[in-house]
Amino acid sequence: MIGSFCFYISNKHFNLTIMKKIFLALLMVGALVTSCDMDKKPYGSLDNDTAIQNLNDCRRFRNGLYSSMRSLTTGGYVNYPEIQMDMFHGVSNNGNRIGEFSNGNINSATRDIATIWGNLYSIINSANFIINKMDEMLANNEYTAEERTELTRYDGEAKFVRAYCYYWLIDHYCETYSASIAQTIGKGLPLVTVYNPTGDSSKYPGRSTQDETYKLINDDLTDAYNALLEYEKTDNEFIAPNAAYFSSYAVLALQARIALLKGDNTTALSKAETIIKSQIYKLAEIKAYEAMWTKDEGAEAIFRPFMSTTELGSSTGGAYLSTKLDGADYIPTFDMLSMYEDEGDVRFDAFFTVWKLAVDGNNVQAYVFKKFPGNESLKTSATPNYINMPKVFRMGEMYLIAAEAAATTNPTLANKYLNELRSKRITGYEEINYSGQALIQEIRNERLKELIGEGFRMSDLRRWGIGFQRNPDHPENPAINNIIVPNGRNLSYPAGDYRLVWPIPSAEMETNPQLAGQQNPGY
Questions:
Q1: pLDDT digits (tens, 9 = 90+) for 43-89
Q2: Most exposed among 252, 339, 431, 479, judged by the fewest C-beta atoms under 10 Å?
Q3: What is the dihedral sign for C-alpha 277, 301, 334, 342?
Q4: 468 in helix, strand or coil?
Q5: In sequence order, what are the residues at sequence separation of 6 or more whose Cβ sits closer than 8 angstroms to the Cβ of residue 460?
Q6: 3-state secondary structure of 425
Q7: Are 400 and 450 in contact (CB under 8 A)?
Q8: Helices marked H in 139-264 — which ranges?
Q9: How far, CA to CA in Å, does 11 sit from each of 180, 330, 336, 517?
Q10: Contact indicator for 499, 492 with CB cutoff of 8 Å
């Protein structure tokens, strides 16, 4: 049984260690100890009694949490739920990489699903350790007012990370929120808020209710918002595009995303509009849009984790493009390509290009997905690594949240945000206003076109209550039909398919007696 995880082991798609067993309460913080500078490698190990004794120690552990955010917003955390859905076909010589997801064969023993679960709870326990220590230090009267503000900031950042991890878990491992099951035990997550390692399985938590899980998330985000807002009264440096540290606006962005996930459209609209109306962050101009993906530049990103050549996240683009520039593990379906019907849509050229794929001795021309082409400044050799800084929260998503949240109650406002987004994506765009179901569908289509590859599709289909069927054909070049993995070629999920929710890992079910009878339906 593995109790700690390293987040810095590189892999083509996902830099996670292989996990055999998972003990929630045994997950340690050692992997997250980093230097005070964000451009240094992690080192050291945790001593519960002496690890945090002063402000420098706080900064060191706090930076470890930022390193974790960089890891869990790249690589498989982003790719797996996207490749599982309707947008990509596997290429026959991909070695079955991510094949369980692409071919619809996930189950409670799927290794990557178990690894992600364990890593997220490891980060949660790291955040718990820091939060518990911050509480102790803040109760001590020896610190100056300035130092207490800094400690409160670190406490808020740790609570933001804990909230983000629980949000990610409930969005992938729990059913869609609804009043009918919101207070049912076993439908939420096991909640851990105190760092207290133990090998006593009788003390491991069972699954909570959805309401309890969301309450913890919302309480943490409220505390994080207040702490960061207080800090920003004296230092607002990170209220700016591409900030490497959390701001109160990053909290608002996550609150907007979670509110939409829950169906709380009033809150989702309010939070998204607060960000939009601030005018601090702005939609990229058409001529600058592609640079947001190639150079990680622009004014859209509210939070963009720090990276350098000595401190990288996982490769996100590596799931799609080969380093030899002649292959791809996954290529877009024809239906996905066809969605960009406007000739002037800047996203088509930003996201797709034609490569000659070498497959089984044949050369086949096909569109490949290049939204994550790798930032040249982050390359460590002449070989592409397809690593980009993740735009965890950005304005394209905020406009889409505002449009969707307003669609049923204020269609005029929904059309306003939809048209404003399209005007920054389509050259020569002329406004069109929709109503009713047509408006809802246009917003959903736009969400897919804008956010493809960023990890939202599985969540969106589940909360909309719809399924999918991949179009097996490639009329853009019929030769492509011969290089597609047969098992996932025309995969379909009916509305409400159980695989739209990931299973609780079987190893976790076996080691935690409190989870008996609490597996997700279908597994």
A1: 334 555 557 777 888 888 889 999 999 999 999 999 999 999 999 99
A2: 431
A3: positive
A4: strand
A5: 444, 447, 448
A6: coil
A7: yes
A8: 145-173, 210-232, 248-262
A9: 42, 17, 28, 35
A10: no
Task: Give the span between the Cα atoms of 7 and 71, in whole angstroms.
Answer: 7
Cα–Cα distance, 449 to 186 (Å, whole number): 35
How far apart are the C-alpha atoms of 243 and 232, rounded to whole Å? 13
What is the C-alpha to C-alpha distance for residues 255 and 268, in angstroms, rounded to an integer? 7
Contact by Cβ (8 Å): 522, 106? no
Q: Where are the beta strands (DSSP E) in 406-513?
A: 468-469, 492-493
The sign one gets for the Cα dihedral 343, 349, 355, 359 is negative
86/97 Cα distance (integer angstroms): 17
Consecutive 10-residue averages of pLDDT for the chain (523 residues): 29 34 35 33 45 80 93 96 98 96 97 97 94 89 89 95 98 97 98 88 94 98 97 93 97 98 98 98 97 96 96 95 94 98 96 96 96 96 96 98 98 98 97 98 98 98 97 97 96 98 97 97 97
Q: Which residue has the tokens 């990170």?
A: 238
pLDDT tens digits for 315-362? Answer: 999 999 999 999 999 999 999 999 999 999 999 999 999 999 999 999
CB neighbourhood size of 329 (10 A): 26
User: CA 51, CA 268: separation in Å to the nearest integer?
Assistant: 39
Of 353, 378, 386, residue with least CA distance to 368: 353
The dihedral of CA 338, 343, 345, 347: what is its sign?
positive
Contact assessment for residue 175 and residue 501, using Cβ atoms and an 8 Å cutoff = yes
Under 8 Å between Cβ of 74 and 119: no
Compute and round to an integer the Cα radius of gyration of the chain: 22
